[in-house]
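Hey, I'm writing a tutorial for new members on how sequence and structure tokens pair up, and I'd like a real worked example in the thread rather than a made-up one. If someone can provide the structure for the chain below, I'll link this post from the tutorial.
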Amino acid sequence: MELAVLALTNLFARKGVSVLFLGRRRVGTALVIAIELTACRGQSVPQGAGGVIDDLGRTVVLSGPAERIVSLSPAITELLFAIGAGDRVVARTEWDKYPPQVADIPSVGDALGPSVERIAAHRPDLVAMYAASSNAQAIDRLEAVGIPSVNIRLDSLASVARAARVLGRLTGLTASADSLAAVFQATLDSARRAAPREGGLRVVILASDNPPIVIGGGSFLSEFLQLAGAQNVFADIAAPSAPVALETIAVRDPDLFLNFTFQEPAFAARPEWQTIAAVRERRFAVVGGSFFEYPSPRAFDAIRELRDALAGVMR
């Protein structure tokens, strides 16, 4: 369908909806119970012009609660289900894995450089996507056909609570979203207070081995390690990930490597990696599951699994 036709269809279908620019993966049982029992409300989400301010600094204004949502982020999809808006997700990406019900939701393909035509075919009143400058063109094209979008950055554990509140306001599910956010934040604060300030196993997480790219302190995975009582050997790197020399890994002499596949990593057999004791001695902790792919309400399940895996390697 031509974009001009889509524009007319969507603008008439959602008269009064506007987006104003101001600038530029199982939920843990204990967490679920706590959410159901609490009615507390957390910090408010910044409001502007009657809407919410997303993580690109844009104000998103809807004429009413979003009822048909296309989610272009697995993390956002999971949060929508967690706050009770799962039945409003009419399309998602091929990357979505959790909750299992997403398998029954149509896919619009890749989350990056999404097809506006495929999105518009689902007649959404909101598109939720990851806040990235690379989505600028998609944002503009969605606006051109009268489809509002919200851009949310889920990179850290702290971002889970804020994202939940933003989605709660856009869906009209403020109470459940605020309850989830408040319980998640309280659990996170408690976990941070209980985590050791120093010591623990010294761990390397590789994003790639050829060339070596390590996970830095700017990643939620580094937070997972710290809350599991371990240290990220490269926590001093502020970015989520960065390339490093193999010699640098050897000099930092990690206790073990964290692996997300249930098989020995390929680099373990390569001669140049034998300079690292943890590789020679096959000290690899293995974890898996979609809750290691992005920050989510299941983060504390991931941290418990990580703690058990680290303890198992060094027994």
